[in-house]
Design brief:
The chain is 44% helix and 22% strand. The chain is α/β, with parallel strands linked by helices. The chain has a domain at 62-180: Chitobiase, domain 2, CATH 3.30.379. The chain has a six-stranded mixed sheet. Helix 4 runs parallel beside helix 5 (166-180). The radius of gyration is 22 Å and the shape is globular. The relative contact order is 0.17.
């Protein structure tokens, strides 16, 4: 009788374990095959998982000028060999550092996944009157203390990422990265 009870408990345990694993494997299956944001903070790009600090759905609503394709083309342009991420010294330097790290680390990963070699470096500048060149793209990070709008804008080989609040600055940074990954609404 005790042997029969042990077999029954093992079957129950196996069934419970199976029922617990089904949702996990289902989520993993969806997650591994989908190329859409899997959660509000995760995106799978070329087989690699990218984690973001802010909601991707909200980031996709940030305006981009002239458009996302222009941002993608500017960053992925073969003639661009260097990318300078620039900022003006302000009380928001900590926020700029976090967003600058996110841009540089994710751009490096995107370039690696696409077999592209570009040099990325950070620089302090005295103002945002900037012009890039054919071979050097500038990404200007404009934090809330210096921003008068929230947007991503390309002008004269310079991509301006600005946000009127800390949250909007984070979302604009993510919108820039999603544009480079060709994620659109």
């Amino acid at each position: 009788m005790a042997e029969h009870k042990t077999k029954l408990e093992k079957k129950k345990l196996a069934l419970i374990l199976l029922l617990a694993l089904v949702p996990i494997f289902s989520y993993y299956y969806y997650f591994s095959l989908s190329n859409k944001p899997q959660t509000a903070y995760v995106y799978k790009y070329k087989g690699e998982i990218f984690f973001f600090r802010a909601n991707l759905t909200e980031a996709l609503k940030i305006p981009v000028y002239p458009d996302e394709k222009a941002i993608f083309d500017a960053v992925m342009n073969e003639s661009v060999k260097r990318i300078n991420i620039v900022f003006v010294n302000s009380t928001d330097n900590g926020l700029v550092a976090v967003n600058g790290f996110e841009v540089s680390s994710k751009l490096s990963a995107i370039f690696h996944l696409n077999g592209i070699a570009k040099k990325i470096k950070g620089l302090e500048v005295s103002n945002y009157s900037l012009k890039g060149t054919e071979d050097t793209l500038i990404i200007a990070l404009i934090p809330p203390v210096l921003a008068n709008k929230t947007e991503v804008r390309l002008e004269d080989h310079v991509i301006f990422i600005s946000g009127k609040t800390e949250k909007e600055f984070d979302l604009a940074t993510i919108k820039f990265l999603l544009s480079v990954m060709e994620v659109v609404v």
